[in-house]
Design brief:
- 28% of the residues lie in helices and 8% in strands.
- The chain is an alpha/beta fold.
- Helix 32 runs parallel beside helix 35 (1274-1295).
Length: 1450
C-alpha cells in the first residue's frame, strides 16, 4: 500500500484519514484516526491509532459524542466542541502568534505547546477546528489575539472573529444551510396565503466542474466555488459527498410534509438542474442536433472513460400489439397488456451504486432507482436497458417505474419499494406499501389493470446467516422468490481488488457488508454449509411455487425466473473477476450488470416454464427476445403445458364467471363489467375457486341523516363511520379461504373475508357486513383486510383471535379501545360505531371438562364484563351481540364416516360436542349447555342494563339460534360450507352469515329471525322509508321482559311426583330384573357421615355433628316427598308401607340405616353384617320374601386420609373392602337390589370457600389430603389420579358380572357422582346453600339433589345412566317408570350387551390404544407444524386446571 493511501489495514480493521459520511455496517470501523463503535445513542472512542511514538498524544482515551448534541451550554461535553478561537493578549493566551514571536527571540515553545487548550480539546474531538500550537490544522483567522493588546482593541478583534467564524465550513454545513432555508420557508408558510413555492435543487457538481473547465479552456478562469474545485482537483471524493449531502438535506426538509398541512400552501422541490449539462462548450459551441450530439447513452463521464459506451438495447419485435380485448386470464397476457409495473427487494433493486463512479465508495449509498434492472425507467431503451424500458416499447403508457435517485419514500421511487438492507422478513411491509400506493393512485385502476411485480431478495439473508444457525426456521413462506448468485460468485467479486498478500479497502468493505460469505476460507466447513444453504434457499423457493399455491385464480400467478441460479461471475480476458460489472464496493451491481440482468429477466419471461435459462452468462452479449406469433404471451405454467413436479394433481383454475370485457384502445383503463346479483343457491358438491360470493344491494335510499344523530335509536346505516369486532377464530377468519383438504391452512386467518368485519374487495365479489355498509358510506373504516394475526396492521379493529374464550373478551375490548382512541382516522367522541361481539364456541367445547367454570351463568358474566367496559367508555356505539351458534348439529359431520372430515382432529377441536353417543346423558348435557348459553345472553340483554344512555345500545342478533346443515342429493352433508377441518366455516358459510346478520339488524327487536338455513337464497334487505334506522328496542316499540322475577324462597326441598306406572307386579316377582318400584318393601343403607345426615339441617357449628337421619338422601323418611326429598319418600309414592327408613334426629329411629360417621371402606363388611342381623330380627319384614333396596356409599374418608397411608387407602384396598361387604350381602340377603354409589369427584370441593370459622378452619382439617394441597402441586395431581382410580376400579368390579349370577340379587352402579358438578349461584360462585356449615358435608338441599340423582339413575338403563348431576332446584325433576320399562334397571333388563362403561378394564385397554394413537398423531402434527412455523394455541387452564382436549380452538 502506498504511503499516501488514505486507507490502511491495521490490526484486522480499516483506518481512514477522512471524515465519516455514513455507517456502512453495524461493525466497528474507523473514522479519521479513531476506531469507533457505533450504536444508536453515541460514538465512543475506543483507540487512537498512531503513526509514531513521537506523536504528541499516545494511548487510549474515551470520550462520547452525544446524540443528539447538547441543546444547553450547561450540559456541553468537551467532545461536542467543534471550533476553538481566541482573542485578547496573545502572550498570555499562548497563541500561534505568540509562539512564533517567542521562537524568534530564541525561547523554546515546547512546554507551552503541549499543554495548550486546543490540544487538550483535540484529545476529545480530533476534528476540532481552530488555531493549533504545532501549526497542524490551525486556522490563523481564528486567532485574533495580538501582543500587548489594549482593552479598547477588543471590539475590533471580536468583529473580525465573528466574520472568520461565519466563513468556517461548519457554518455552511448541509444541516445549517437547510435550517436557514427552513427559517425562510417558515416565514412564507406563516404569513403568505395561496402560495405555490418552488425550491430549486442545487445543480449537480458535474455542472460546476464543466463550467470551471470551460473557463480554463477559454482562458477565463472562474474564481468561484474554490472549495469544491480544489477538492475535485486533488482527487478527493469529498466534493461529490458535499454535493450529495446538500441535496439530501434539502430533500428531507421538503419531503417531511411540514408544508403540506394547509390547502392553500405547498412547497415543491424542482430538481431540473440536477442532471443539467452546459449547452455550449469550447468544443461544441452549437445548438445540439441528433447528428452533432452523438445521440446515445450519456450516463456519466466515468462510464464513458471505462469503455462502457452504451447500456441500451435494440427491440426488433414486430408483435407489439395488445390483446384485442383486455384478457381475463393471466395465461393470455401479452407484454402490451401490462399497464403497471412494481418491484420489491433489497439494495440491488433499489439500485445502490448502479450509477456511481468507479472507486466512489460513498456513491454506493446512492440509490439509482432509475437504473434498476427490474423497475428503473430513466431515459429509454436505446440508452438504458431495464425491464421497464423494454415493456414501454410495447406499451408507452406503462406506469409505476422509478426514476432518478432517492430512497423508497421519495415520489420518484413510485412502485419501486425495495429497501436497502432488506431481508425476506421485511417483504410484507414492502407489499403493503405497494398495495397502498396502487390503490390510492388515480392513474391505476387497481381492479382492472394488469400488473407485473418483480420480487428479488435473499442476498442479505445469506450474508447474515452465520449470525443465526441455519435451521428449518427458514420456512418456505419466508423464501418467496429468493434467487441469488452462487456463493462462489459473491466471494470472487469481493476479491476483485485483492493482490498478493495485501488486502484492499474494497475487499475489507465487502467483508463488513457480507462477512458470512466473504470471511470463510476456501474448502472450509463454513463455506460448504453456506453453499448448501444457498441451494436450500433456491430449492425451497421452487417447492413453494411448484406447490400450485398461487395458481388457484385465473388472474394471478407467480413464476420463478431462474437466470441467476447457476450463473458465474463475469471474468475478463485474463480470467479474473471483471470488476466493471460491480460498484465500488465490489458487491452491488453497476449499470452494466443491471443492463444484463434486465435482458436476462426479459429472456426468462418469454421462455416456457420448465425450459427457462438458469445459467445466464453476463460477460456475453444478450439480445432481447421477442414474443412469437404463435406464443405472444408471457409464459406461465399453463401456457407452457407444464406440470409442477411436486403437484402432479394440480387443479386447473377456472375463469371468473360471466365477465364482459371492453376493448382497451390506446391502453386506456377499461372496466370489467360484472353482473351484480345475489348468489343463487350456493349448494354444491365442490368448492370452485371462481365461486361468486358477492351480493347485490337494491336499496335506493343510501343517504345519511341530515344531521348527525345524537340517539342510537335514530341511526341510519350511512351514519356509521367505524366498524369493529371481538371474538374467536370465526371472527378472525380461520380457514375461510382454505383449499379443500388443506388442513394446515385452517390456521391461516383470512380476516378480510370474515362475515362481520372483513373488508376485502367489494360487495359485488365478497359479502361481509363492512362491504354492505360501505355501499351506504364508502368512507367506513375499521374493517380488516387480507390475512394475518393480531400483530399485522391490516387487522385494524378486528381484535378477535383463535382460541378465545368469553373470559378473553375484556382484554380484547381494552385493546380495541386503545386503538380507536389513538387512531387519527377515528373521531372517537363523535363517530358512530358498530361493534360486533361473537363468542362461545370454545367455551362450549370445554364445557364437559369443567361444567362449573364454563356454565351458562359464568359465560354471561364474562360477556357482561366486556359489555360493561364498552358501555362505560365508548360513546355513540351500536353493539351487535351475536348469539352463540348451535354446535350440536355439527356432530353430523363427525358421524358421517363417508365424508373426508378429519375425525381425529375434530375430536381435538371439540371433544365435548362430537364424542358423546346419540341419546346419551352426556349429549343431553351439552345440548342443555348450548341452550343455557343462549338463554343467559338473552337475559343479559333483556335486563336493559345497556340502554341507560341515548347513544349506546346492545342488540341481540339471534340468527344462529337454530342452524340447518345443508344436505346434498346423495344424502351426505355438504362440506363445501366448511373449512377443511369440517369445523370452521368456509367463505360460503360466511357469505350467508353476513347476509343473515345484516337482515337481523334491520328486523325489529322481538321479530328477528332465529333460524339459519345456509342453503337459502338470502337477499339483502333494505331500510324502509318508514323505518330507515338500525333496529333497537325503542324504535321497535319493544318492551324488555327483564330478568325473571325473584321467586320467594322455597318452604322446603320437597318434590312432586305423579307417575301412571305406580302399581306393583300382579304377583311378587322372583327375579330382580322384574322388580317394579311398588314391589320394594324394605330399604337399607350403609355408609359414612353423609348417609347419617351429618349436619344436614345445622344452622351453626354446635349443630354440625347432629345426625339428621330423617332427611338423609338414601334412607331418610321424615314427612312426605312433598316436604322432604329422599329415596324412601320417593318409594312411598309407590308403596306407602315401605319399611326400614330412618327418621328424626340421632340413632334412636335409624332402623336399617347402619351408616356410621367417619367410616371407611374397611368398615363396610361390618356394617353389612349389622344390617343383616337387624333385618333378620325385625318382625316388620319378611326377610326371605320381601324385596329390598340397599344403598351403599363410601370412600370420601378413604381419599381424605390417602396421603397419610397410601398403601392402606390404595384403590385396590378400597375396592377389596367393598367387595367383601357385597359378597356378604350376596351370600346372605335374598331378594335384594343393591345400589352402589360411585365415589364423587373430590376436586370440586376445593372451590367451596366461605369466610366463616366452619369453612375456613374445619373444611381443610376434615379432608387434609385434598384440601390442604397447593394448586398444580404433584401431590394434588396424585390425589386426582387416585380419585379416578377409585372410580375405575369400582366400575370394573361391578362390570365384572360377579354379582349377576343370581336371579334374586344384583348390584347396580349408579354413576351420577362420577363427574361432580359444583352448583353455582347467579354470580358464578359455588352455591353454598347445598352445603352444611363446614363447607364439606351436605345440607338438606344437597341431600334432596342426591336423592333425585339416585332415583333417576335407578330408572336409566345400564350403559345410558347420567354420570353427572345438574344441581338446579326444580320440584319436577324426578323421573317416572315407563310402560315399556316399568322396572328398576339392571344390566340384564337394560336389553343390551354390556357396554364399555367409563373405567372398565375393557375401556382401559381401549383408551390405552386410543391414547397411544392420539399421542402419535399429536407428535407427528407437532413436527409438521414446527417445520411450517405454525403453532397451535396452547391449552388453557382455569381454576382447577381442567383437562382441555381441543388442541386447536375456535
Amino acid at each position: 500500500m502506498e504511503k499516501d493511501d488514505p486507507w490502511k489495514w491495521y490490526d484486522g480493521q480499516w483506518t481512514a484519514n477522512k471524515r465519516c459520511e455514513s455507517s456502512l455496517s453495524s461493525e466497528s470501523f474507523f473514522i479519521g484516526t479513531l476506531r469507533l463503535s457505533c450504536d444508536a445513542s453515541k460514538w465512543r472512542v475506543c483507540e487512537l491509532v498512531t503513526q509514531s511514538v513521537m506523536d504528541p498524544w499516545v494511548g487510549c482515551a474515551e470520550g462520547t459524542f452525544s446524540s443528539p448534541a447538547s441543546v444547553s451550554v450547561h450540559t456541553l461535553r468537551p467532545s461536542e466542541v467543534k471550533v476553538v478561537a481566541m482573542m485578547g493578549d496573545s502572550l498570555i493566551a499562548g497563541s500561534t502568534q505568540a509562539t512564533e514571536q517567542t521562537a524568534r527571540i530564541g525561547e523554546d515553545p515546547s512546554p507551552r505547546m503541549q499543554g495548550s487548550f486546543p490540544d487538550i480539546l483535540k484529545s476529545f474531538n480530533p476534528d476540532l477546528i481552530g488555531y493549533s500550537s504545532d501549526n497542524r490544522n490551525h486556522d490563523n483567522s481564528l486567532d485574533q489575539s495580538t501582543l500587548r493588546v489594549k482593552a479598547e482593541e477588543l471590539p475590533g478583534q471580536a468583529l473580525k472573529l465573528v466574520n472568520s467564524l461565519k466563513s468556517q465550513p461548519e457554518y455552511y454545513s448541509p444541516e445549517n444551510v437547510a435550517f436557514r432555508i427552513k427559517e425562510a420557508l417558515d416565514i412564507l408558510y406563516q404569513e403568505v396565503p395561496r402560495t405555490f413555492v418552488n425550491v430549486v435543487e442545487m445543480q449537480d457538481i458535474d455542472l460546476l466542474l464543466q463550467h470551471y473547465d470551460l473557463g480554463l479552456s477559454t482562458n477565463e478562469p472562474r474564481n468561484f466555488c474554490d472549495c469544491l474545485v480544489k477538492l475535485h482537483n486533488s482527487g478527493k471524493l469529498s466534493a461529490y459527498n458535499i454535493s450529495r449531502d446538500y441535496r439530501n438535506a434539502l430533500q428531507e426538509l421538503v419531503y417531511s410534509g411540514i408544508y403540506d398541512k394547509r390547502e392553500d400552501y405547498t412547497v415543491v422541490l424542482q430538481p431540473f438542474l440536477r442532471n443539467l449539462e452546459l449547452p455550449l462548450t469550447a468544443e461544441m459551441p452549437y445548438l445540439f442536433t441528433y447528428q452533432n450530439s452523438d445521440y446515445g447513452v450519456n450516463l456519466r463521464a466515468e462510464a464513458r472513460s471505462s469503455g462502457l459506451k452504451d447500456f441500451g438495447s435494440e427491440v426488433t419485435c414486430t408483435e407489439r400489439a395488445p390483446s384485442d380485448t383486455v384478457p381475463v386470464s393471466v395465461h393470455k397476457l401479452r407484454p402490451a397488456d401490462i399497464k403497471v409495473i412494481a418491484a420489491l427487494g433489497d439494495s440491488i433493486t433499489a439500485g445502490n451504486g448502479a450509477g456511481s463512479k468507479p472507486n466512489d465508495l460513498v456513491g454506493v449509498l446512492t440509490q439509482f432507482r432509475g437504473l434498476s434492472w427490474s423497475i428503473g425507467g430513466d431515459k429509454n431503451i436505446t440508452t438504458v436497458t431495464t425491464l421497464t424500458n423494454i415493456l414501454r416499447e410495447f406499451n408507452p403508457s406503462l406506469i409505476g417505474y422509478s426514476t432518478d435517485t432517492g430512497h423508497q419514500d421519495t415520489p420518484q421511487a413510485f412502485l419501486n419499494q425495495a429497501v436497502m438492507g432488506s431481508v425476506t422478513g421485511d417483504l410484507m411491509a414492502q407489499v403493503k406499501r405497494i398495495l397502498q400506493l396502487m390503490k390510492n393512485d388515480s392513474r391505476i385502476n387497481f381492479q382492472e389493470d394488469w400488473k407485473i411485480i418483480t420480487l428479488f431478495v435473499g442476498g442479505n439473508d445469506l450474508c447474515d446467516y452465520c449470525k443465526n444457525t441455519w435451521s428449518s426456521a427458514h420456512s418456505s413462506s419466508d423464501l418467496a422468490s429468493i434467487l441469488t448468485f452462487d456463493v462462489a460468485c459473491v466471494r470472487s467479486a469481493a476479491k476483485v481488488h485483492q493482490t498478493g498478500s495485501s488486502i484492499s479497502f474494497e475487499e475489507g468493505l465487502s467483508r463488513l457488508i457480507c462477512k458470512c460469505v466473504i470471511n470463510p476460507t476456501d474448502n472450509s466447513a463454513q463455506l460448504s454449509e453456506l453453499k448448501a444453504l444457498n441451494r436450500e434457499y433456491q430449492k425451497r423457493t421452487h417447492l413453494l411455487i411448484e406447490s400450485g399455491r398461487y395458481d388457484t385464480r385465473e388472474d394471478f400467478t407467480v413464476v420463478i425466473q431462474p437466470f441467476l441460479e447457476d450463473s458465474q461471475i463475469p471474468r475478463d480476458k485474463h480470467g479474473m473477476p471483471d470488476k466493471s460489472y460491480f460498484a465500488a464496493d465490489c458487491f452491488h451491481f453497476n449499470v452494466k450488470a443491471h443492463s444484463q440482468a434486465a435482458r436476462s429477466l426479459w429472456k426468462n419471461l418469454l421462455e416456457p416454464v420448465g425450459r427457462k435459462t438458469m445459467n445466464q452468462s453476463f460477460d456475453e452479449p444478450i439480445y432481447l427476445s421477442c414474443p412469437s406469433k404463435d406464443e405472444p404471451y408471457l409464459r406461465t405454467y399453463k401456457n407452457s403445458n407444464y406440470t409442477y413436479p411436486n403437484n402432479s394433481g394440480q387443479a386447473t383454475s377456472v375463469a371468473p364467471v360471466s365477465t364482459e370485457t371492453t376493448v382497451a384502445p390506446s391502453h386506456k383503463p377499461s372496466m370489467t363489467q360484472v353482473s351484480l346479483q345475489t348468489t343463487p343457491s350456493i349448494t354444491g358438491t365442490t368448492r370452485e375457486p371462481s365461486q361468486i360470493y358477492g351480493s347485490e344491494l337494491l336499496c335506493k335510499d343510501r343517504t345519511p341523516s341530515d344531521v348527525i344523530p345524537n340517539s342510537v335509536h335514530s341511526l341510519r346505516p350511512a351514519d356509521v363511520k367505524v366498524i369493529a369486532a371481538v371474538g374467536d377464530s370465526l371472527t378472525a377468519g380461520n380457514g375461510i379461504g382454505s383449499k379443500p383438504n388443506d388442513i394446515l391452512d385452517v390456521l391461516t386467518q383470512y380476516r378480510g373475508l370474515s362475515f362481520s368485519i372483513g373488508g376485502d374487495g367489494s360487495l359485488r365479489i365478497t359479502t361481509t357486513l363492512p362491504n354492505i355498509l360501505r355501499e351506504f358510506n364508502p368512507s367506513l373504516t375499521g374493517f380488516s383486510t387480507g390475512k394475518g394475526n393480531l400483530e399485522k396492521p391490516n387487522v385494524f379493529l378486528n381484535q378477535a383471535f383463535p382460541g378465545a374464550l368469553a373470559g378473553d373478551l375484556p382484554g380484547q375490548v381494552r385493546k380495541l379501545l386503545d386503538i380507536m382512541k389513538n387512531n387519527t382516522k377515528i373521531d372517537f367522541q363523535n363517530d358512530w360505531k358498530i361493534i360486533n361481539l361473537f363468542i362461545g364456541g370454545n367455551d362450549l367445547c370445554n364445557y364437559c371438562t369443567d361444567s362449573a367454570h364454563f356454565s351458562g351463568i359464568n359465560f354471561a358474566k364474562r360477556i357482561e364484563e366486556a359489555l360493561d367496559i364498552l358501555h362505560n367508555e365508548v360513546p355513540r356505539a351500536f353493539v351487535n351481540l351475536i348469539e352463540v351458534l348451535q354446535l350440536i348439529p355439527l356432530r353430523s359431520l363427525y358421524q358421517d364416516k363417508k365424508l373426508s372430515c378429519p375425525r381425529t382432529l375434530m375430536r381435538m377441536l371439540c371433544y365435548c360436542v362430537v364424542k358423546p353417543s346419540e341419546n346419551s346423558p352426556e349429549l343431553e348435557m351439552m345440548s342443555e349447555a348450548n341452550r343455557a348459553y343462549q338463554r343467559s345472553t338473552q337475559m343479559l340483554v333483556e335486563s336493559g342494563r345497556y340502554d341507560s344512555r341515548e347513544d349506546f345500545t346492545v342488540v341481540l342478533q339471534p340468527f344462529f339460534r337454530h342452524v340447518q346443515i345443508p344436505i346434498l342429493e346423495n344424502g351426505h352433508l355438504d362440506t363445501s360450507f366448511f373449512a377443511p377441518d369440517c369445523f370452521h366455516l368456509s367463505q360460503k358459510f360466511h357469505t350467508q352469515m353476513a347476509r343473515a346478520l345484516w337482515n337481523n339488524m334491520l328486523q325489529p327487536v322481538g321479530e328477528k329471525s332465529d333460524f339459519q338455513d345456509v342453503t337459502a337464497n338470502i337477499s339483502l334487505s333494505c331500510p324502509s322509508q318508514d323505518q330507515p334506522f338500525l333496529r333497537t328496542f325503542r324504535n321497535s316499540n319493544y318492551t324488555y321482559q327483564g330478568a325473571d322475577p325473584t321467586a320467594d324462597p322455597p318452604e322446603n326441598w320437597g318434590s312432586d311426583l305423579a307417575c301412571e306406572e305406580n302399581l306393583p307386579s300382579e304377583t311378587v316377582p322372583t327375579s330382580v330384573h322384574r322388580v317394579r318400584p311398588a314391589d320394594v318393601k324394605v330399604v337399607g343403607a350403609l355408609g359414612d357421615s353423609i348417609t347419617v345426615g351429618f349436619g344436614a339441617q345445622a344452622k351453626n357449628l354446635f349443630q354440625l355433628r347432629t345426625q339428621y337421619q330423617g332427611v338423609s338422601w338414601s334412607i331418610g323418611g321424615d314427612k312426605t316427598l312433598e316436604a322432604v326429598t329422599t329415596l324412601p319418600n320417593i318409594l312411598k309414592k309407590f308403596n306407602p308401607n315401605i319399611y326400614g327408613f330412618a327418621s328424626g334426629i340421632g340413632k334412636r329411629k335409624s332402623k336399617f340405616n347402619v351408616a356410621v360417621p367417619d367410616s371407611k371402606a374397611k368398615d363396610m363388611a361390618e356394617q353389612a353384617g349389622s344390617l343383616i342381623q337387624l333385618m333378620k330380627k325385625s318382625s316388620k319384614i319378611n326377610f326371605e320374601k320381601d324385596w329390598k333396596v340397599i344403598t351403599l356409599f363410601i370412600g370420601a374418608n378413604d381419599l381424605c386420609d390417602y396421603c397419610m397411608n397410601k398403601e392402606t387407602y390404595s384403590a385396590d384396598n378400597y375396592v377389596k373392602h367393598i367387595q367383601e361387604a357385597l359378597d356378604i350381602l350376596q351370600e346372605q340377603v335374598p331378594r335384594a337390589f343393591v345400589n352402589i354409589m360411585q365415589i364423587l369427584e373430590m376436586k370440586g370441593i376445593r372451590r367451596i370457600k366461605k369466610n366463616t370459622i366452619g369453612c375456613a378452619l374445619l373444611q381443610k382439617n376434615i379432608c387434609p389430603c385434598f384440601l390442604k394441597l397447593r394448586d398444580d402441586s404433584p401431590e394434588l395431581s396424585e390425589m386426582l389420579r387416585v380419585n379416578r382410580e377409585y372410580q375405575t376400579k369400582l366400575t370394573a368390579l361391578i362390570d365384572s358380572g360377579r354379582y349377576d349370577t343370581s336371579e334374586d340379587f344384583t348390584v347396580v352402579l349408579q354413576p351420577y357422582f362420577t363427574n361432580t358438578i359444583i352448583p353455582l349461584n347467579i354470580m358464578g360462585l359455588p352455591e353454598l346453600g347445598f352445603f352444611s356449615v363446614d363447607c364439606f358435608h351436605l345440607s338438606e338441599r344437597g341431600h334432596a339433589e342426591m336423592a333425585i340423582g339416585l332415583w333417576n339413575n335407578m330408572l336409566e338403563p345400564v350403559g345410558h345412566k347420567q354420570n353427572y348431576n345438574n344441581f338446579t332446584y326444580d320440584r319436577n325433576k324426578l323421573k317416572c317408570p315407563s310402560s315399556d320399562s316399568p322396572y328398576l334397571f339392571t344390566r340384564k333388563n337394560s336389553a343390551e350387551e354390556p357396554e364399555v362403561t367409563p373405567g372398565s378394564e375393557a375401556e382401559q385397554s381401549i383408551w390405552a390404544a386410543v391414547l397411544i394413537a392420539i399421542a402419535g398423531v399429536i407428535v407427528g402434527a407437532v413436527l409438521v407444524l414446527i417445520m411450517a412455523k405454525l403453532r397451535f394455541p396452547k391449552c388453557r387452564q382455569h381454576d382447577e386446571n381442567p383437562l382441555e382436549l381441543n388442541g386447536i380452538k375456535l
